[in-house]
């Protein structure tokens, strides 16, 4: 090996290690604060969480660690209580969820589809959003989609809710998360309208209220059925992609 080749190799290795070290710092910050109020993470299980997410980042350093990954990993570890099984499931989950992170394109599509759904299914709600500071960009839904509603639900409901979301792709719609998001809004529709909530009010409200997965998923299924019924109407042609 020539001196130049060795130099290039050493530089690449150094850059790799520096990048990995930076990711380790981000991981450590999030691991220490991830789900600490849940009983499972009150002991050595934090080490398991750290091991799994560190392994993922080592194997996917081109992706790296981004805030929110620990949130998606934690419930899987609770269920499996096994690092290898959790890692395998997390890798599969991230094949879909990675598009919701900053480098992906899914989040903008979610926002655009939510805008269309609200306009058609609840024009009064849309008019409020449009007139009261215009938050029809739906950025308040960002965390909902990023974490599959994990922080919006009671923790013990997350497992069943995720199963519904994952199964819906095969039996109902690959866009079921949109209808779940709409269900959260419709659950508190009267409160939002009567208080003429603006963007900040909506964020604060949902941060303070944990949802029941039973009520939310039932309403989401009903909303999906409603869209299914009207999708053949030529005025609703743009909904076909959501079924």
UniProtKB/TrEMBL annotation:
<dbReference type="GO" id="GO:0005096">
    <property type="term" value="F:GTPase activator activity"/>
</dbReference>
<dbReference type="InterPro" id="IPR000195">
    <property type="entry name" value="Rab-GAP-TBC_dom"/>
</dbReference>
<feature type="domain" description="Rab-GAP TBC">
    <location>
        <begin position="1"/>
        <end position="169"/>
    </location>
</feature>
<dbReference type="Pfam" id="PF00566">
    <property type="entry name" value="RabGAP-TBC"/>
</dbReference>
<keyword id="KW-0343">GTPase activation</keyword>
<protein>
    <submittedName>
        <fullName>Rab-GAP TBC domain-containing protein</fullName>
    </submittedName>
</protein>
<dbReference type="InterPro" id="IPR035969">
    <property type="entry name" value="Rab-GAP_TBC_sf"/>
</dbReference>
